[in-house]
Every structure is written in structure tokens, then in C-alpha cells.
Amino acid sequence: MRKSSFPYFQAALIMNIIELNHYPVKSMRGVAINVADFSPIGLRHDREWLIAQANGAFITARKLPILLHFHTETHAGSLKMIAPDGDSLSVYSKDYTEIAPVQVWQDTFTAYSGDTAADEWLSAKLGQAVRLFWLGERSTRLLPPDTPLSFADGAPFLLTNAASLADLNAILGEHFDMNRFRANVVLDGAAAWAEEKWRRIRIGTTEFELFKPCKRCVLTTIDVHTLEKHPQQQPLAYLAKHRGAVFGMNMRTRQSGVLRVGDSIEIIE
């Protein structure tokens, strides 16, 4: 048995994954999965498609909350998008061959455009001119020094803790779902907010570095079911005042492998 360097009372906890989620199109609804292949860029199919303005500048549900009501399905080489009205459209990565510049936050890099019919369909559904971009087989965007990055905000993986959310809900006297926080990996079995003190964890045989707390934005104030914003801007208002706006931890790894719901988590550092 490996010996953890973390204090014994934390190492004795039994922690495991209770949710895995990927988000094939940035800002569209997440997809819960039981098993996920992963590599240094993140979970397979996570944030590999992007909706942007004509010039490639990214668009998210912060400005267009209706994106949260679009469902997606991924298949080999294809993506199916299902609009809130039930209309659907499938696109194929093989049709995305035109190299084009895109921008996510301060990062400008190249991705692929191609299916103008998809652009027109999305523009009609969203009420403004947009384009759909595919990341490609390899990303040209890097998280320094050398970690490939998808269309995610700033990290390949986002980890959250069920106990932290339970504590937050108890403090605020309201019920906020974890889906507001758009995590890839949700764990159970740890003390509330303990994840903010970890630097390295092991899931299966893979080590992950928790390299940065995740600072939250206005998206957490939007009810994903009704699309209504919280009148007191919760839970962001509390997090900003008392926790530096942090909820969850950004992670990265140099390895590839498979994650499964139920996998145990070990604190290394």
C-alpha cells in the first residue's frame, strides 16, 4: 500500500468519483458519463467545439444563457446538437478543414471551420450571427509550459467536492445543483473545502496536479433549468465575499488513461 504524505486523518477518508461530465460544445449542457477516456488535454470530447462570433471571438452562456438548454450527443467523428425546440443538427469533423483564428479569453490560436449550414442553423436558433469551430485532432493552444488546452476556460480538468456544495447550500439556506459549476470530476468522501489544500492526487494509477483554484463567474448565478439569474447573485455573491470567488480546483496531468465513476481518490500532497 502506498504511504500518503497527507495527514493520517485525511488519508483515512474513503474518497471516490461520484460524477463525470464532459461538455462537447463550450457552454452547452454537459453530458454525464460513467466512463471517460482522458489525456493531458482533458476528458475525451470535452470542449472540442466552440461557438464564436464571425471573427472567432468566443461566445458563452454568460452572454447567451439559452446555450445551457442545448443538448449534445457525440459519436465517432460527429456531433449532434439538439436545440430547445427539439430541432437537431449533426455536424462532422471531416467537414471542418478551414484553418481559422479563434480567441478564448486572452488566448488567440487556430482551430477549424467548415460547415456553413451549421453556422446558419445556430445563428437562426440563437438570434445572432455565429460560427461553429472544431478544435482539431491536436490543439494549437497551450497551458504553460507545455500542456495542450481545449476550448476550456483555463484548465484541462475541473474538480469539485460534493461536501463543499453541501456546506455552501447549508450556509445560504438554498439548494444549488452542482451543474452550475460545470465540473468534469465530482468527488465525495472528503471534508468540505478540503480540496483547496491539495496539490497532487492519484486516481487509479494517474497523478493529477491541482495547480490553481477555480474562480467563479456570473454563470453560477443562472438556474440551468429556468435560465433565471438569482436575485441576490448567489452563490457567487457569497463565494466572492468569503472564499475569493473560488469553488473547485483546476487540474492537469501528463498521462492518459480512463476515469470511471466509483474510482477511488488518494491524496499525495
Automatic annotation (TrEMBL):
<protein>
    <submittedName>
        <fullName>Uncharacterized Fe-S protein</fullName>
    </submittedName>
</protein>
<dbReference type="InterPro" id="IPR005302">
    <property type="entry name" value="MoCF_Sase_C"/>
</dbReference>
<dbReference type="GO" id="GO:0030151">
    <property type="term" value="F:molybdenum ion binding"/>
</dbReference>
<dbReference type="InterPro" id="IPR005303">
    <property type="entry name" value="MOCOS_middle"/>
</dbReference>
<dbReference type="InterPro" id="IPR011037">
    <property type="entry name" value="Pyrv_Knase-like_insert_dom_sf"/>
</dbReference>
<dbReference type="GO" id="GO:0003824">
    <property type="term" value="F:catalytic activity"/>
</dbReference>
<feature type="domain" description="MOSC">
    <location>
        <begin position="127"/>
        <end position="268"/>
    </location>
</feature>
<dbReference type="GO" id="GO:0030170">
    <property type="term" value="F:pyridoxal phosphate binding"/>
</dbReference>
<dbReference type="Pfam" id="PF03473">
    <property type="entry name" value="MOSC"/>
</dbReference>
<dbReference type="Pfam" id="PF03476">
    <property type="entry name" value="MOSC_N"/>
</dbReference>
